[in-house]
Amino acid sequence: MDKIEIFTNVITSIGVIVSLVLGIIGIAFTQQQIALYNKQALFDKRYECYRLLTHIHSLCEQNLRLINTGEKERYIAVDFVTSL
Known about the structure:
The chain is an all-alpha fold. It is built from one helix and no strands. The chain has one helix at residues 3-69. The radius of gyration is 32 Å and the shape is rod-shaped. The N and C termini lie far apart (69 Å). The relative contact order is 0.06.
């Protein structure tokens, strides 16, 4: 082997090692981002359920107040539609 072949092999090996290290770092960052996304998606789901439940609770309180007052007034039917 002459010096050019040795130099070429060393440069190629360095390139392979750098690519390997950067690939491992990329995989670690990808796993971190996936975990963060899963936490955010779970938070969004829980927040939507919380908003729905607080809205239903306030509707129940309003209806209970109307029932307890005993006033004769016209009621309007309101459809409550949601999707989870």
